Amino acid sequence: MTDAFSRTVSLIGVPTDVGAGARGASMGPEALRVAGLAEVLQAQGLRVHDRGNLAGPSNPWQPPENGYRHFEAVKAWNEALHGAVFDELQQARLPVVLGGDHCLGLGSISAVARHCRASGKKLRVLWLDAHADFNTAELTPSGNIHGMPVALLCGLGPAALTGIGGTTPAVRPDQIRQIGIRSVDPGEKRLVHEHGLEVFDMRYIDEMGMRHTMEQALLGVDDNTHLHVSFDVDFLDPEVAPGVGTTVRGGPTDREAQLCMEMIADTGRLASLDVMELNPALDVRNRTAEVAVDLIESLFGKSTLMRKTAPRA
């Protein structure tokens, strides 16, 4: 975090769970605030502006239509978020999106991609998640759009969602690195392979370690790269973070997640962040929010050890 761009952080709350299959992620923004997110960022020397919460339609809690649940509500929330994130980037601020369910990655990342096109920056998206979120209406078993944002960003779906950022596709698969994946539907898996997404799943992390994983995921990131992190809290093992609606056993430990965040921070290129799927209704005394805030603190520069240079291999 070395340039003027990254010294001012804007918190954008998006209190909705319209894309999810369980209620409760709409309370995520306040849980992160209660856990002291603004204060830990200020302790890292950042100026923090809390923009409050965006407004949007309530969750109608209806069954899917034509393969999508709550299509119009998802569209409205993501359009509002796209505008908010793009405005902050245009003012040289680092937007931190407080979700909300992960369908919101569509609005935030389409705004980041639009900003990169306008500014001539390269885009790298790190998608930290238990799920690939590469479903389509034809493949999804549920119709929940929080399982589709990566596919939508890559142009797979109706223009009303894929075109939110003004360009379809908003991103190319080669701009995305997925980390921590361990739950993928069979049809979704075929689609991931067809489109060439680079996925570092939990077997890869088990075999190669988190350090090597992050070295590969960050390969090619340079001074002209806008690095966006989309952090779904279910990336973590549920023993570490129980407060999510879609827990999947066998995720990164707290220490592995800390290393992941510290290595991202070491690049100095972090320029936007999503924090998604925190569900206080399923949490234990706000523990998951506190874990998430601790990891975000590492993402913005807190390290375990004070050292001048990275250790040599």
From TrEMBL:
<comment type="similarity">
    <text>Belongs to the arginase family.</text>
</comment>
<dbReference type="GO" id="GO:0000050">
    <property type="term" value="P:urea cycle"/>
</dbReference>
<keyword id="KW-0464">Manganese</keyword>
<dbReference type="InterPro" id="IPR014033">
    <property type="entry name" value="Arginase"/>
</dbReference>
<dbReference type="GO" id="GO:0004053">
    <property type="term" value="F:arginase activity"/>
</dbReference>
<dbReference type="InterPro" id="IPR020855">
    <property type="entry name" value="Ureohydrolase_Mn_BS"/>
</dbReference>
<feature type="binding site">
    <location>
        <position position="133"/>
    </location>
    <ligand>
        <name>Mn(2+) 1</name>
    </ligand>
</feature>
<feature type="binding site">
    <location>
        <position position="129"/>
    </location>
    <ligand>
        <name>Mn(2+) 1</name>
    </ligand>
</feature>
<feature type="binding site">
    <location>
        <position position="102"/>
    </location>
    <ligand>
        <name>Mn(2+) 1</name>
    </ligand>
</feature>
<dbReference type="Pfam" id="PF00491">
    <property type="entry name" value="Arginase"/>
</dbReference>
<feature type="binding site">
    <location>
        <position position="131"/>
    </location>
    <ligand>
        <name>Mn(2+) 1</name>
    </ligand>
</feature>
<feature type="binding site">
    <location>
        <position position="232"/>
    </location>
    <ligand>
        <name>Mn(2+) 2</name>
    </ligand>
</feature>
<feature type="binding site">
    <location>
        <position position="234"/>
    </location>
    <ligand>
        <name>Mn(2+) 2</name>
    </ligand>
</feature>
<keyword id="KW-0378">Hydrolase</keyword>
<keyword id="KW-0056">Arginine metabolism</keyword>
<dbReference type="InterPro" id="IPR023696">
    <property type="entry name" value="Ureohydrolase_dom_sf"/>
</dbReference>
<dbReference type="GO" id="GO:0005737">
    <property type="term" value="C:cytoplasm"/>
</dbReference>
<protein>
    <recommendedName>
        <fullName>Arginase</fullName>
        <ecNumber>3.5.3.1</ecNumber>
    </recommendedName>
</protein>
<keyword id="KW-0479">Metal-binding</keyword>
<dbReference type="GO" id="GO:0006525">
    <property type="term" value="P:arginine metabolic process"/>
</dbReference>
<dbReference type="InterPro" id="IPR006035">
    <property type="entry name" value="Ureohydrolase"/>
</dbReference>
<comment type="pathway">
    <text>Nitrogen metabolism; urea cycle; L-ornithine and urea from L-arginine: step 1/1.</text>
</comment>
<dbReference type="GO" id="GO:0030145">
    <property type="term" value="F:manganese ion binding"/>
</dbReference>
